[in-house]
């Protein structure tokens, strides 16, 4: 075999080896991307289902308290029976209607096929109206307790003081929740009336406290649920952008690859555990990716400076607390005709509090109006969609109470400081 043929064969072998190596690397990258996508999507679904389960059980607890404090239900349970057949029929109807009325008020339970059944204590006189002979299953919601007296769940729930007994049906296709109810409006034997009245006052107080807690937690639950549900669909877009990034790198389009990579990093940061605590270093890295995309689009000189103070690696903050403030500096601090802006961030301790200041070289704003806007007072401000400063302020207050929040201050005329307040322990010092 001639030297020329040998060289040709060697070159062909080298080319084949390079192609095989390239295909193997591409396959491994694709497999890694798909695996990570599946794992992230699965985790997001688990967290969303957990959050929905918590909301569902809280709604069930609320329904239980409604039944225990329903005055009309208590009056029907206290009625005398056996004197008039028409009155007995009205009592049967009233009990079934009160059970349905309270359930219909809870749309979450009703829309998920939830059904309530009441098994009366056989010692109650009204329970005689609901014997097995005159009660139709799947029609009546009220039954005599003797019908299920030998069931484990009935005995467990009746002997329990507070806990709910959760179990599956025999074919494991339905979930049941059994609990013991004591209606506060029941006016049976005289020796029970005083106890029932005291219990009723306690139930009303508990209901009032529940409403207060619901009002303070409702906004947080809804935002967390929306965030968890919003994690699922963007994963497809994120992985598509990673594929575009690989294509741009293969074609040596480095500027496109860098931009796509920055956008993908922003998306990844926004859809993974949106309300967890991170170091300020992590938040700043996300901000730098945001600035890189903004600079590429508008060709303005935007500088981010970290002033001397506590190291960002020692400061722990909720995600997306600094990014909206930096975004506001860029969007409202300069116009498209300006050359650029410098944004300065400093973390420090003052009066046993951790403060993080965000300032810029932009045109400034009226701090009094911004603080009034945070308090939901009527002000003339142009408000855009997004996380927003109200969101930042309320999330800090929900997480840290009075020790957390956002406020604005003016200095040197109209120059603006956006100041985050956090507990000292978030500084790691």
The side-by-side strand order for the widest beta sheet comes to 6-8-9-11-10
The poorly predicted ranges are none
Largest sheet: 5 strands, mixed
Discrete helix count:
12
Counted beta strands: 11
Distance N to C terminus: 76 Å
Number of domain units: 2
* Quaternary organization: single chain
Please state the CA-atom Rg, rounded to the nearest Å.
32 Å
Q: Which key terms come to mind for this protein?
A:
single chain; 429 residues; alpha+beta; Heat Shock Protein 90; five-stranded mixed beta sheet; two-stranded parallel ribbon; 12 helices; 55% helix
Task: Sum this structure up briefly.
The protein has about 425 residues and is an alpha+beta fold. Helix content is about 55%, strand content about 15%.
